[in-house]
Amino acid sequence: MEKTLSIIKPDGVRKKIIGSILNRFEISGFEIVNIKLIKLTKDEASTFYEMHKSKPFFENLVDFMTSGPCIPFVVEGQNSIKSVREMMGSTNPDDAASGTIRSDFADSIDSNIIHGSDSKESADREIAFFFE
Ligand code: UDP
Ligand code: MG
Predict the structure, then answer these.
(1) How many CA atoms lie within 13 A of 119 on its CB side?
(2) pLDDT by residue (tens digit) across 112-132?
(3) Is the alpha carbon torsion for 72, 73, 79, 83 positive or negative?
(4) Which mutation among 7, 110, 119 tests ligand 1's pocket best, with the greatest number of atoms within 8 A of CB?
(5) Where are the domains of the chain?
(6) Is 52 a catalytic residue?
(7) Which of these, 77, 79, 88, 130, could form a disulfide with 72 (CB 3.0-4.6 Å)?
(8) Is the CB of 111 under 6 A from ligand 1?
(9) Residue with CA closest to ligand 1 atom 19
(10) What is the pLDDT of residues 26-41, one digit of tens each?
(11) Which residue, 87, 117, 79, 119, is CA-closest to 105?
């Protein structure tokens, strides 16, 4: 069984769609095996997204991720890393397949509701970041 780290970003909490998002994973057969509500500091958000430090959107991303509480959670199940990424949809909601979380709920590429680890290495690092 594989574990991955997802985050309902601050826009998802503000829109009151925590339950709707978690429900999608539950009805798809995945287990939520850890979860919390946390307001990240700028330092924490910068560290979490350190691979994007040189990108033009980095400062805006850190501001967004610290704009309110978010919900990191661990999803367990078969092929959870790939499945969660598929259920999220593309980074830009305009490109996201219909029926995906970003297509259904996200406003824009910089306010896109949900994070999901993109590899086994990322999942291990990100689960440890929030839960160890
Ligand atoms: N992001 C942004 N503008 C961009 C690209 C990315 O604000 O042009 C933000 C967005 O919140 C995205 C996050 O940075 O989810 C991480 O980017 P990545 O390319 O890793 O996308 P993801 O893996 O989240 O689909
Ligand atoms: Mg990414």
Answers:
(1) 3
(2) 999 999 999 999 999 999 999
(3) negative
(4) 110
(5) 2-131
(6) no
(7) 130
(8) no
(9) 91
(10) 999 999 999 999 999 9
(11) 87
